[in-house]
Specification:
3% strand; two-stranded antiparallel sheet; mainly alpha; 178 residues
Length: 178
Amino acid sequence: MAMLPVQAPSEQGPIEQIRPRLTGSGRRGLAGLSDEALVAVATEGDERAFEILYERHSPAILRYSRSLLRSTQEAEDVKQEVFVLAISALRRGAEPDAFRPWLYRVAHNACMSHLRVRRPVLVADHGVLIGPAGAAEPVDGHREELRQLLDDIGKLPDVQRGALLLREMDGFSYEQVG
């Protein structure tokens, strides 16, 4: 049986000579950090840290905004606005205790601002013009229970509706919702 030569730890093989081993710096290293650590890095001016926060939280912020606004187009606009507001606030010195609940508060406030200035939209339904609340209801008559639930949720005050959506749709704990 032939013995393979063993390299001493200080010797490098041919692959290591061509391509040095990458260290854990850069984007891969940042992705493993917590939100709060990324916020600290982002406030120091590292755009990559904020990109990771955006990638990590933008789908959930979009879902939350869509659930409040009931419009995908407006929710996309608000999502962008939320992250612009967030990075601006962080650069001005905002220090959130927990980034995720703070970001949802920014999203909630942005959605409420959009709802305040929203103009009514009329939709044609079999030749009859109806408002946005009627257009959001399911067409299928077999969904009366769902229709009633959506109507009841729609009647809740904005703060209670937002808290309910945070808890039930996004899985926040009661402490985080508070």
